[in-house]
């Protein structure tokens, strides 16, 4: 325990780690301020979007009305239906714009569904509408979920709603770039012991290879978990204190890759579990590479290469929740399915154990003891 605390305290003396914590909190606070400022902009953009849609419908409606005047009313039943649906759709857009403008968010959800129902019918009459039928059906499903929970719809890229903002932070910080920076910063002080030969002091201690490896791994895990926890706790503190006040914000539904819904609370819980498991494996990998290669530059290059390859694989769509390396992109892997994979949990623990055994084997090369 003493050597574990020693390794952890040694890292806390690193200015780079303290700077990482400060920069992370500054980025989170800056993102929240940006989202807060954007609230009126998001509202204006939504109004502008529906105004454009209404203009599109109006131009077609005026053309249909002109055609009806030329041939006479009641002559073409299909044309009559186009005019009727077009008029209703245009009027529904006006109601929707008014509701958004007056911040009647729940009413706006119902009106949006009614608007899309009419727009789908308008599509069936071979008329144009800016959104596809599939997109509108997806929005209707989401709106129905939100109406059941009495939650307003949020812009996922600019929200101050607790669940949505926490998801945005997870997406922007707990990813390839964030984890890469973390492991480089917390791992560098340890690997440098091989560069400056201060590792001799550790090898000279009356401790077993197993204890030495586990103490260094434990120090990395504690540091990684500290950063991980501070990011999430600070995010929650910011958004809970200054964000949108709602009775059940963490019941906000997010679409998964299979187009099912995962609640905000489940998304965050799974992200925490996946993130902690990934840190266990990542730090074990670093410890093994450290004892295997014993060179800061080489280890960093190997880690960078592995991160880049894994990032390209994930972006290509090869994401499986039971594979530990998929957790490098927490948001992506969490949204793969509604339920967490227990196979992934056990496989992660197994791979972590294997990496630590490899590290113990590599650490038995006592060439530093003269």
TrEMBL record:
Tagged with keyword Transmembrane helix: yes
Keyword Transcription regulation listed: no
GO molecular function: ABC-type transporter activity
A Gene Ontology term for the protein's cellular component: plasma membrane
Segments traversing the membrane: 16-37, 169-191, 217-239, 267-291, 298-320, 340-360
Top-rank taxon, per record: Bacteria
Keywords for the protein's UniProt record, in alphabetical order: Membrane, Transmembrane, Transmembrane helix
PANTHER family: INTEGRAL MEMBRANE PROTEIN-RELATED (PTHR37305), MEMBRANE PROTEIN (PTHR37305:SF1)
Name by which UniProt lists this protein: Hypothetical conserved protein
Higher taxonomy: Bacteria, Bacillati, Bacillota, Bacilli, Bacillales
